[in-house]
Amino acid sequence: MASVENICHAHNCEASVVDGRIIASLGDSQNNQNDEMGLSQGDYQNHQEELNCNTPITTIFFDMDNTLIPTRKGDAKACSKIADLLQTEHGLTRETATDIGNTYLTAFRRCPDNPDLPLAQWRTQLWEDSLPVGHKHLAHQLYTRWLEYRTRYLAPGAEVIAMLKSLRRNYLLGIISNGPSAAQWEKIDRLALNRYFDCILISADLPWAKPDRNIFYAACHYLGVRPDECAMIGDKLETDVQGGVESKLGATIWLPLPKDLCLMHDKTLADLDDHIRPDCVVHNLLDLPAVLPKQPDTFFRGHQQRLQQRPLEGRRGSDSFIPKTTRNREASYNRFLPDVPDLFSCSSNSCDSNGSTESN
Predict the structure, then answer these.
(1) Per residue in 286-300, is it b (16+ CB within 10 Å) or e — as a string?
(2) Is there a contact between 23 and 281 (Cβ–Cβ < 8 Å)?
(3) pLDDT digits 0-9 by tens, 121-133
């Protein structure tokens, strides 16, 4: 059976340093955090509380992992709960139980999905590989419990759901996520995220991944909107922000991870070209509505009327409404995919030279 080393290493690698030059909100706790990171108060001289866009924003694209859902934090908490179970129910020492959880988490982050195996079989193998001799028979039980914990910890909070429902009254909402198809759709289905979005794109279902401009243009094409009327929010500078900038979206919003969730190889602004800068930074997803450009009520009413003029399959609230997604053809789902031209270069979803294709 395939080992982790022989499968493409994939998972999340999020941004690690706050760009204080353009920021939506800054409290005392954030000042302290940025002092620890070596950023001076002078870095905040361009502080702004609202995006300044040349074109009205009609559409918001969200990254999924560590933006909509706390993937990195939730995965770690689920493994910690399994360590508790190994200690209390199976008599392992705390140190051994923690090592098992960490070994699994490392392997899972490197490769959450093996396209040659069902998800459950692949992840059960990862647990078996992580367990010591004499305990490998626990692999399937641990996977089942881990999946229950993980789903619980990844679920968006009630405030996030309320925000999405509120935004959807006036905006089209989409998800653009890099990552393996089965693993990403599992999260979407288990967390029922599809009910809040008009468009969901997973990179492994397409020839492109963020920051390739084509995946952003595909999302615009699905929804019938221009790039300059779209905003992108995500935690990764090198995919979400860079892709949004190079696609000439109306706005890019960076949601950097807290310092305690950052990894050594996470990208910072210093790693990117000077022109790759977010238009705004928020430190909590719930701050997003506050930084969106204010539009007159007449604009939103006109936008809603235009939505209602669409065919039934694209009209919210109708029995025929079909969210536009990129579900894999091999899955037992119907896909609704218009033809999308290869507008620029084509970048695959395979591993890079460092062996890492990251979900976001």
Answers:
(1) ebbeebbeebeeeee
(2) yes
(3) 999 999 999 999 9
